[in-house]
Amino acid sequence: MILDSWSPLVFVISLIIIALIMWAIRHKGQRVRKKTPAFFAANPVPPRHKINYMYWGFQTAMGRVYRVLRELHSGLINDYVYWLILLTIIIWVVMLI
Amino acid sequence: MIADGHCMILAIAIPLLAGFSTPLLSRVGRKIRNSWVFITLFVSLLCASYQFLKIVSEGVQVYTLGAAMPSLTSPQGFPVRIILEADALNGMICVIVLSFALLASVYAWKSIREREDKFYPLFLLLTAGIVGMSLTGDFFTLFVFIEISSISSAALISFFRRGESFEAAIKYLILSAVGALFLLFGVGLLYGQYGLLNMAAVSREIGASHSFLDGAALALFAAGLLLKSGAAPVHWLKLDAYQESPVPVIVLCLLSSLVSLYVLFRIAFSVFGLSLTPAFGWVMVTLGVGSILVGVLMALPQDDLKRLIAYAAVAEIGYVMLGVGAGLTQMPVLDGSGFAALEGGIFHLVNDIFNLGLLFLIAGTVCHCTGKRKISHTGGLAHHSPLLTFLFLLGMLAISGIPPLNGFASKIMIYESVFFFSPLLSAVGLLGSIIILAIFVKVFALVFLGPPSEKAAGVPLLMVLPMLVVASVIIFIGLFPHPVLEFLIEPASRSLANPSLWTGGVL
Fold it and tell me: Which of B77, B89, B454, B464 is least enclosed, having the fewest CB within 10 Å?
């Protein structure tokens, strides 16, 4: 198993060594840097980007799945009790097999 | 010492009795009452810890109310009365539950500033109920403790007295009652057949093959306990409850759902273990996969921070069921990948308590500092509280299974062991972890990054201390998973995988 040979301490030490190497390389760069305005694919950044819709592409592509899931989460206790009964029946039927 | 042999019952009795006496102390003063709550939980924790040390040195511990041993409780020698039984698994769970209850009570000193005289008695009752669920050795006492925890939870969920809180509490109460009735019906089926309520005695009667009614009883237990634990497709109980409750209550509700999962595993392995077919294990695996997918997909579009973490909790419970379910498919003889999957599941159950507990504590602190519940209305909190930012990063990486934290250790065990059952299961597990990381990266960016918000309040020390303790445990388990596996998880998994260890303690 992977966990048998996994050593978190070796992992952390490796991270520290890599961080030191990165710092050393960065340290050799320019001391004085002119701060340029941020850009977004060569365009200026819009004033406020709505990060809340960060995964809109994923949610749009999975639109059908989300429609079904939202309908299932109706908020009605009746529906929830039906699910409980259905689950009990399914488990019982499986136990009979 | 007089209390030496009574630690198990004291771990339940102390918070139970303290809960009833706390309203009197509330009339004396706030600090005296809070100190009383702290001391009672601390003493209960000491009792549970001492009990766990006895389990480590002597093996399974059994406590019979009103008799020296279970065989003396009836002329015919079969066990009646309330019998508590603790082995490596539930002994460890009891210690963790009481530790978290203690931390939650410290957190509550600052977070609960109104109607405290009503909060703390219910808090202690809920704690007693959860500890009772973890230590009980008979079915009816299990039902009683489940009811105690459900009713006190429902009262605490409505604590803020908003319309949504009342709705969440009513839903919780009704669904808990229905789930408990299912459980009681299952108990009735077993009692009707065997005339016994003790789990070990029923296990002996069921033996290597269960009857038609035994299967029905197991189905009822599984459904009722899965509802209480918050696994899909019956995860509805927890969502509104976690969203509307105060954070100390959320922590205890989280503990009760994970203890419910433990009770289900105890019944499946120790009571029905010898008679189970692989089909039941595959049902657990399927429900686990469903919980992972439903949890991560529904968490992605959430705007309310506590509801988002609630869905992540559903997904994490899915991982536990995936691992333990894979182990169940190999009962009664567990070895190789089946045992490794069981170990991974139990390890993940323990890690979930810490990871989700930390995230909920942070969520409560964010709401306290910003006065906002929706993550889209917050921002720039890293400028005000770098410590809170670091703790959230830690919780985020831990729950996503990123090395070198504790979540990675348990998840890699699950991925690797269930791969032998079906590579698709590992793939779904990995996908779930990736989506969880994506979800919490979004939360981190929205809540902590960006320009500083003007209105953020400071983080009180009494809220930070419990988070630091939990974070330390997360880092410790992450850096030293092998000793934790060797001394805690493996004995706990062996006690579950070998039903005779449990039944032999009583019979």
Answer: B454
From B479's Cα to the closest Cα of chain A, the distance in A is 5
State whether residue A83 sits within 8 Å of chain B by CB.
yes
Nearest-CB residue to B404 (from A11, A66, A80): A11
Contact B285, B322 (CB under 8 A): yes
Tokens standing for A67? 């429609």
**Residue B361 tokens, joined:** 């504590």
CA distance B48 to B445: 41
**What digits encode the pLDDT tens for the residues B273-284?**
888 889 999 999
Residues in CB range of A18: below 8 A, 6 or more apart? none
Q: Is A39 on the interface with B (CB under 8 A)?
A: no
Q: How many CB pairs under 8 A join A and B?
A: 115
- B85, B229, B231, B282 from B238: Cα distances, Å: 28, 8, 9, 24
Q: Does A94 touch chain B (CB under 8 A)?
A: yes
Contact yes or no for B299/B238 (Cβ under 8 A) = no
Distance of residue A39 Cα from the nearest chain B Cα, in angstroms: 16
Residues 6+ apart with CB under 8 A from B212: A96
Which among A55, A88, A94 has CB closest to B279? Answer: A94
Give the tokens for residue B12. 């339940």
With contacts defined as CB-CB under 8 Å, which chain A residues touch B301? 55, 59, 66
- The ipTM value here is 0.90
Residue B423 has pLDDT above 90, yes or no: yes
Residue A63's CB is within 10 A of a number of other CB atoms, namely: 9
Residues B446-503 have pLDDT tens digits of 899 887 776 777 888 999 999 999 999 999 999 999 999 999 999 999 999 988 888 8
Each residue's pLDDT expressed in tens, for chain A with a length of 97 residues: 777 788 888 999 999 999 999 999 988 887 777 777 777 777 776 665 566 678 888 999 999 999 999 999 988 999 999 999 999 999 999 888 7
